[in-house]
Amino acid sequence: MSDELQPMPDDWSTALAVVAHPDDIEFGAAGAVASWTAAGKSVSYLLLTRGEAGIDGMPPEEAAAVREAEQRESASIVGVEQVTFLDHADGVIEYGLPLRRRIAEEIRRHRPELVIGFNHHERFLSGRWNPPDHRNTGRALLDAVGDAGNRWIFRDLGLEPWEGVRHVAIANSPHPTHAVDVTDSIDKAVASLEAHRAYLAGLRPPVRDVRGPLTAMARQTGERFGGRLAIAFELIPR
């Protein structure tokens, strides 16, 4: 793999981000989303859970409502208007045909040219183990992109197949290949993550500084992208 990251393809106008939890997009892709929407591209979010198991000091029923509201606010900051939740149980997402079917249904419904996912590998770049919700969601998404384009798979959905996905980009991957310049959108990236106030406050220890780590990450990525602040993605060949 070359040390230099390549620019993300620009030959698309609609995108769908598919992740397991509220905050997944903000911890790695929101700056790019803000850059894309500012350029006139349309991005929608699909969340498999409401993140109800993510705040130890808050009952799941309360946390689900709080985190949904935080995600919607966060999305609006970066220019995303359409946010859909699928109500899978947080923490116990299982890979399998039902999950592939549900994601394929949404791909056929949204008909995106770019699909954005979250790290599906076993580990993060830091070496830290990647939780099963991330792995199972990401792998099901990769398979569902193919499923969505095959009219003979999940025929009962009653939706026309969609073969128009040109690119699949994975955020927070330990194997990045491409990047997006976020110099002009880093403030929105910070604000979108800060919108997850209850979640960040509920972490142990609480996260109080968002700008420092996000900017440092963008600067580090930029060392492989012409020195500009950047967000990295692994582009999966289609």
Automatic annotation (TrEMBL):
Organism: Microbispora hainanensis
Entry superkingdom: Bacteria
Pfam families: PIG-L
Annotated InterPro entries: GlcNAc_PI_deacetylase-related (IPR003737), LmbE-like_dom_sf (IPR024078)
Protein's UniProt name: PIG-L family deacetylase
Keyword annotations from UniProtKB, A to Z: Zinc
